[in-house]
Write a structure and sequence with these properties.
By secondary structure, the chain is an alpha/beta fold. It folds into 2 domains: 85 residues, Ubiquitin-associated (UBA) domain (Helicase, Ruva Protein, domain 3), CATH 1.10.8; 187 residues, Vaccinia Virus protein VP39 (Rossmann fold). It has 11 helices and 9 strands. It has a 7-stranded mixed beta sheet, with helices on both faces.
């Protein structure tokens, strides 16, 4: 690739390189629903980044010939993607909800499926002032999306990783959402004595022995944000068990989980005493999140 090639030719070669070099397994696809976009979209995003152009400009000027340096840079980016590095880490950002979030290897790349959790939180949460908690916030995706949509909500987010919180703080500052409170600690640890109208979380939910975790598509992401015990349910169980101590009466708990864990999560919630337990499907048709109300 590179060397006096037009934009159109570079794009075609990039797509072919990604198609032939992708080593992501079907297990990784199932476990996380995350290979990023299609090879074509990945190649477009990387080429636009390397050339400092928009994707629209790529399509309207395919005959242009970029400089050798920019073409070489594109080749390097495509090679990184073909080796499994997420596009979001290569670009340094990921679009989520209506926000552009800075991301890096300290945080999980926000998935489109998680937007379902944001959508349901906006439906279930009070229309006026409310106290909201986001557990394991990572880049701050859920907390910042909710704060951007509901200025009257007091949103607090926790994470055990200081590096992740640093990324979330940078995103909050960049988006003008500095009112979101970001606290270090595991799940509810920094929230002693507080109660919330709604608690949301996208915790790790992949089994520790799942071969998907060895896949090139996931090896760049923080394992602490992916794996959770022998069956992938340990973090979900911990949150379900503790949540009633932090929820207002009739408060809601919203949990993202694996596509095959809806029934198990629902059982945990019912046994713990939650009512109105409902699972919802993502755009791919998978049961991706479950909500429940504390009675």
């Amino acid at each position: 690739m590179a060397g006096n090639l037009t934009i159109g030719a570079l794009l075609a070669q990039g797509i072919e390189r990604l198609r032939s070099g992708s080593g992501a397994s079907s297990a990784a696809r199932s476990a996380t629903s995350n290979l990023g976009a299609t090879h074509s979209l990945d190649a477009e995003l990387l080429l636009a980044h390397a050339l400092s152009m928009s994707r629209t400009q790529l399509k309207t000027h395919p005959e242009n010939v970029p400089s050798h340096e920019r073409a070489r840079r594109y080749t390097e980016l495509v090679d990184r993607r073909a080796a499994g590095e997420p596009v979001a880490y290569i670009l340094g950002y990921r679009d989520f909800w209506t926000l552009r979030l800075a991301v890096n290897p300290a945080v999980l790349v926000p998935r489109p499926e998680t937007e379902l959790l944001v959508e349901r939180a906006l439906v279930l949460g009070p229309s006026g002032p409310a106290r909201i908690a986001d557990l394991g916030t990572g880049s701050g995706a859920i907390a910042l999306a909710l704060a951007s949509e509901r200025p009257a909500w007091a949103v607090v987010a926790t994470d055990v990783s200081e590096n992740a919180l640093g990324t979330a703080r940078a995103n909050a500052s960049m988006l003008g959402l500095g009112r979101v409170e970001l606290l270090k600690g595991r799940w509810f640890e920094p929230l002693a004595g507080r109660r919330f109208d709604l608690i949301a979380s996208n915790p790790p939910y992949v089994a520790e022995a799942d071969p998907a975790l060895q896949d090139a598509a996931l090896e760049h992401e923080p394992q602490i944000a992916l794996a959770a015990g022998p069956d992938g349910m340990s973090a979900l169980r911990e949150i379900v068990h503790s949540a009633p101590h932090y929820l207002e009466r009739r408060g809601w708990l919203l949990l993202e989980h694996g596509s095959d864990q809806a029934a198990a999560v629902a059982r945990e919630l019912v046994v713990r005493g939650f009512g109105h337990v409902r699972s919802h499907r993502d755009l791919a048709g998978h049961e991706r999140m479950t909500e429940a109300q504390w009675n």
